[in-house]
Design a protein that fits this description.
This protein is an alpha+beta fold. The protein has helices spanning 3-12, 34-37, 123-130, 135-145, and strands at residues 20-27, 40-49, 56-63, 66-76, 81-86, 113-114. The protein has one domain (3-145). 23% of the residues lie in helices and 31% in strands.
Length: 146
């Protein structure tokens, strides 16, 4: 798929209810002079708030040159920290839990597990999650769930 087509498809995700674009990255290519003047957006990160847990989000990252990735993110805005859980973590990693204490599963039955170790604390992501009003997106999701 050409970069411009990827960019168009990635941009369309923002129109999905409950979804918000929180970050993009543009890249140029020395071998492609047109990108010197109009670089393509080749990475897009979208967030979807959990309609029940106010401190939990889904984070979807789309990249032109690799498979998309999905994470659950728990926020501690008072401490300005993010905690990530992914689907491909080792079975020894602690499972992410919902408000009732049950393990969180993906649509294909895999468990979200906490990513262990020191996680980079991206100021731009912390601001996107903690300094943003997510009422509109949560309302859209609750309306969809009926």
């Amino acid at each position: 798929m050409p970069k411009y087509a990827f960019e168009r498809e990635a941009r369309d995700i923002d129109s999905k209810p409950g979804t918000r674009l929180i970050d993009t990255m543009k890249t140029g290519d020395l071998a492609s002079p047109i990108t010197w003047f109009r670089p393509n957006q080749t990475a897009w990160r979208y967030a979807i708030p959990d309609p029940v847990q106010p401190d939990r989000f889904s984070l979807i990252a789309l990249y032109f040159d690799r498979e998309p990735s999905a994470y659950m993110v728990d926020t501690d805005c008072s401490e300005r920290r993010l905690y990530f859980a992914g689907l491909d973590e080792p079975a020894t990693a602690p499972e992410l839990r919902d408000v009732l204490g049950r393990p969180v599963k993906s649509g294909d039955g895999r468990f979200y597990r906490m990513i262990e170790g020191d996680q980079t604390q991206d100021g731009k992501l912390i601001s996107a999650f903690c300094d943003t009003d997510w009422k509109v997106e949560r309302t859209e999701l609750r309306t969809l769930q009926g």
